[in-house]
Amino acid sequence: xxxxxxxLLIEDSPDDALLIQRAFRKLGVPSTVRILGxxxxxxxxxxxxxxYADRLQHPLPDIMLLDLKLPRRSGFEVLEWLRSQPGLxxxxxxxxxxxxxxxxxxxxxxxxxxxxxxxxxxxxxxLVVVESLxxxxxxxxxxxxxxxx
Amino acid sequence: MPISAAARxxxxxxxxxxxxRYGVAVLAVVxxxxxxxxxxxxxxxxAPFLVFVLAVxxxxxxxxxxxxxxxxxxxxxxxxxFFLPPSFVFGPLSTSNLVxxxxxxxxxxxxxxxNTRLRSAYLRESxxxxxxxxxxxRFRVLVEGVQDHALFMLDAEGKVVLWNPGAQRIKGYEPQExxxxxxxxxxxxxxxxxxxRLLREAVARGTVHREGWRVRKDGSRFWAxxxxxxxxxxxxxxxxxxxxxxxxxxxxxxxxxxxxxNETLEERVVHRTAQLEEANRxxxxxxxxxxxxxxxxxxxxxxxxxxxxxxxxxxxEETAREYADRIVAASGRMERLIQDLLAYSxxxxxxxxxxxxxxxxxxxxxxxxxxxxxxxxxxxxxxERPLPPVLAHRPTLVQVLSNLLTNAVTFxxxxxxxxxxxxxxxxAGRLCLWVEDNGIGIAPEHQQRVFDVFERLHGIEEYxxxxxxxxxxxxxxxxxxxxxxxxxxxxxxxxFWIELRRPEAKP
Lengths: 149, 507
Prior knowledge:
The complex is a heterodimer.
Chain A lengths: L4 E6 L3 H14 L3 E6 L2 H9 L15 E4 L8 H9 L9 E5 L4 H9 L4 E4 L4 H18 L9
Parallel strand pairs in A: 1-2, 1-3, 3-4, 4-5
Helix pairs in contact in A: 1-5, 2-3
Chain B lengths: L4 H5 L8 H21 L1 H4 L6 H14 L1 H19 L11 H51 L3 E7 L4 E4 L1 H7 L3 H4 L13 H14 L1 E9 L5 E12 L5 E10 L1 H45 L1 H18 L5 H32 L5 E3 L1 H18 L3 E4 L6 E3 L1 H17 L8 E9 L2 E8 L31 H11 L3 E6 L5 E8 L6
Parallel strand pairs in B: 7-9
Antiparallel strand pairs in B: 1-2, 1-5, 3-4, 4-5, 6-8, 9-10, 10-12, 11-12
């Protein structure tokens, strides 16, 4: 599958969001990164509710980068909800968070995250992470279909 | 001083008063003689011996058989001389007079012997009674004297017959209030049946000891220690019961207090433990916060400083670029500091399970992590193989070795290429791993300090470091039941060692 890929980034910190976007830009990845700042908005977007009903404007993403510490609804809750939705549960979710705690890694795996990455300090390192992400998930990985059960 | 009853009576019968006894006998005969003489006008020659019977009676009563017989003999002589015809002369006697004399002698002898026996019995009884009375007196003094114990006696049915002042003091009743009443009156109303049970048990076993509640006259209760003994007469018949009661309320109160303290001790320990656990949890949460929330702004600081230099570097003056570089460097140091702090705190809280670990693999892994840095400086790390396995926690051991190697490679004199040698030394059950370098060395007075947290011997400009690396080494090694140390001479390199347990040899 080619063409601009759609990445949904759920990140509450504007700093982190900005840096990640910049990293994607630097890599020249032909993709659009949509950013949502809290868990409720994430749910609404994925469910196509409210202002997100128009799927042309707001398409379902190819992968979702999910921070854990979010206002309103935590990343865990979003993940849990997602995996219970028939039309959405196959969406590849990569947890991208600041915590390296074993507890969090385990819980994310239990809830069905596809991968767990720690937000690094330092731009070089961030570039490496983003590049690896892009290469693996958007280039190598076979994309499952969404929208139908 | 109590004189025994027997001692008091005996003087009368003692051999020493021999003179007195026989003297009294003679006196008795003389008195009887005198009496009979005065009766001559009335009696003339009749009843010559009758009055002398009195003398024999008295002599034998006072002195015993001997004096009695003497009196008999003397009386016979006197009677025969004075009152048998011919009178006042010892002449031949007629047959009837002889018979009279003989009868008198027989009467005298019989009286003497009977009286003697009567007297002995009387004496024995007196002595016995005296002794009994004295003994009774002693016991009474004993029983009355005891103030702290209630000593009282019950009859075979359990009714009070004796009551000592101790009982009065402890239970509050005067003797007349309790004598004749059943012992169950001292028990609390709901335990009255217990009284009979206890009596029956005492009858069966002889003595019973029990502790229980008793009631005083004023209605108050006290905790009593009771000893109940069944009393039997020589034939084995139940005569009654002896009961000793002691008020042990104080002791019971002390026991109750201790028990209460013990129970609350449990509670207090649980409470204290919960507090400690709470404090521990708070600390862990703090560590988590450090990890998560401190890093977030750090990411922003470093990220945007770098972005500034990268995207707008050509628009910045050199000084401005330098400022930005310093920001980046500082945030990098802070990141490493946070990492080390987290590693250190994790060592304290994690459960460390020791398993056999391949030391060579761990060393290789640690070296691989530093290879770039080593190559940059033209350095070299050599390992003396093979390295035997050790009992350790693999991730911790990797961290420990990485820290040691990083130090070895970092703390060299400027311009010197680091040379590091790793070798192992086996001792009984233990393995000593040496990391030897050609670095700047550590002065003896600092060799212990360097293992403490946040202890640095150099400024940050001279050599990079967080001051936690060796603290992690020591803590990590200790958690693995080992030790760590250093041998060093300033200017001549350092030899760091860690000692770990070896897996037990398989048979």
